[in-house]
Amino acid sequence: MKRHVLHAVNHARKITHHLRQKRILTRKKILTLFTVINMLFVLMIGTNILSFPNTMVGSANLGLMTKEKIRSHLSAYYATSLPLIINAQSYDLTYEHLGIYMDPDAVEQEIFAPNRKPFFQKIPAMIRQLFTPRRIQIPLSFSQEFYEYVDKINDAGLTGTDIVYIDQNNKQATVYAPQQRYTVDLLQFQTELLHHFGRTDTPLTVPLVEAPNELIEKVANTNANLARTYNSPLTVIVGMNGTNQFITLSPEDLRKYTTASITAETGDAKFTLNTELFLPDLTTALSVYAATFNPVTAVERVGNGIKNALVTRYEGGPAESVKVGVDSGPNTEGELADKYIEIDISQQKLFTFRNKTLVKTYRVSTGKDYPTPVGTFKILNKTGLGFSNIYNVWMPYWMGFEYSKELHAYFGIHELPYFYTGGNKIQRPREFIGVPNTGGCVALDIGDSKEVYQFADIGTPVVIYQ
């Protein structure tokens, strides 16, 4: 009996213990569930009002912040001076000074984009960001002011004191560039500005790249042109007393008698004559023909012909020979066309030719305010009375032969001009004829211009010598 009672008591104890353990387990499960629910509730609220952890905007960590705090940080970073290093020089500028603008609304939208996902998609994304930062490129706007600032940096980087030397013996140019040219690597600069945002402890070095020296490229072209200019002989046909004398100058002679100078910015060339060397040699060369001439006039006219031929070669044109006259007559003998006009600026004379015969010689006045162009032209237009808007004068027997884009006006042949003042006609002095006194046109004396006007037609060639 006693054994049965003990057994019943033990069994009751086991049942009681089991029930107690079951109640404890139930309470733990309820507590765990309550904790999980609380955590989910906190996460739900947190993921709605706070940014995810490790949210990087540029170099700034804006994780686990409210929208208000994020805006405060963004405004502070944007307004803070940005130390820039440009070619070893330090500058402190804000983003706004650089012409870079920030849209805080766009930044906020991008930061909180994961927060707008469904709740059970947000949790894994938030957990991933605990270990792997999410990097956001701040949406900065680069205005025209920014690009103008970069242009200023480039202007400073491209400014230099390059010098062009010309070896007058070999007629070749060399560039001496004491300073390195540089420009801003624009794409890299913008990228580094985006990454640097939010960093205030270190300066940003503006990325520069070496710029090509355009002058070196121009000088290479110049040397090719100079080589073409001096690589072949030049025959000078000298007109003296109705006969032609021939002087052939070798490439070595051309290098010896002339000096070349180059305009570095444009690559244009100018040639001058070494008169001290050329005058005695030319005098000796012409004296064998037993002709009388003025050596000073001869060297000037022949020298001008040589210089014009070299310019033609330098610019790519053919110039195997050049014809000049050293006396008071024309440079040609009527061989250029059936009918044409020749003008010699050095003599201040105009010659008319028909059927290989000199028709008549006239004294003229050529350019003083602006040089009369030299070369071969033709009569483009004619009118009995022209008017100059530049000088406000009337020009009888006008014949235009060349249009100047620089002056936006024609060069022409015409009679001495006149104008009216107070109702009175004022004629340009006839003493102007024989000396340069025009704005670039060729002026004839009263009466002479009518003859030349009647001689010429539209299309009649006009050849002008220096």
Strand content: 25-35%
User: Termini separation (Å)?
Assistant: 154 Å
User: How many strands, what sense, and barrel or not for the largest sheet?
Assistant: 9 strands, mixed
The CATH class of the largest domain is identified as Alpha Beta
The Cα radius of gyration reads 46 Å
Calculate the mean pLDDT score and round it: 82
Helix content: 25-40%
CATH fold annotation of the largest domain: Ubiquitin-like (UB roll)
Structural class: alpha+beta
Helical stretch count? 11
User: How many structural domains are formed by the residues?
Assistant: 3
Low-confidence stretches: 36-44
**Strand order, largest beta sheet:** 21-28-18-19-20-27-24-23-22
CATH architecture of the largest domain: Roll
Which word captures the global form? elongated
- Number-wise, the strands total 28
